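Aim 2 progress update. The chain analyzed this quarter is reproduced below.
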Amino acid sequence: MKQKSSGGAQAPDVPDPVDARLGARLAELRAERGWSLGELADRSGVSRSTLSRAERAEISPTAALLNRLCHVYGRTMSQLLSEVESEPTLLVRATDQPVWEDHASGFVRRSVSPPHPGLRGEIVEGRLTAGADIAYDRPPVPGLEQHIWVLEGELDVTVQEVEHHLGAGDCLRMRVWGATRFRCAGPEAVRYVLAVVLP
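Predicted structure tokens:
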């Protein structure tokens, strides 16, 4: 997400602060492993140019891109995002819950209870606009336990090539080893709770 001036003249793009911190953290993780952009591209299946632009905060990474990088680095998306936020506290007020948006796919992700050292579970609120469709080719951590509870709207979730249709109040629990897909199935946006437990 880039910030632009609101006037008629367009100012040079300024990286969103979260994108800038996220890019810096991605660069740190790669440097810690001594990997070149080419090696990370081979491991993640993401092009070198896209990786470079994400690390320099020239683009806002999509949920699918972050998922691939989380898989390579052995982190959940919430863990990665929490590393660019301030230290987590025990009580997280609604106004302080980090929100991340993937504008390209119509996905909004609120970390209701961000990851905390020593704890394996977290709660995320997800929102998908009508028609939004997100596919992940692998889990960020193999064997990740997830519970999806739909609050409003309809959601189709495909896991292990089986599609599950969820309406308001329905809950799907699963352990994720392979590809998954989340699709807003109804004419209106869907809002759901995602409980994540590390294996």
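The chain has a mean pLDDT of 87. The first strand starts at residue 2 and ends at 3. These observations will guide the mutagenesis experiments scheduled for the next reporting period.
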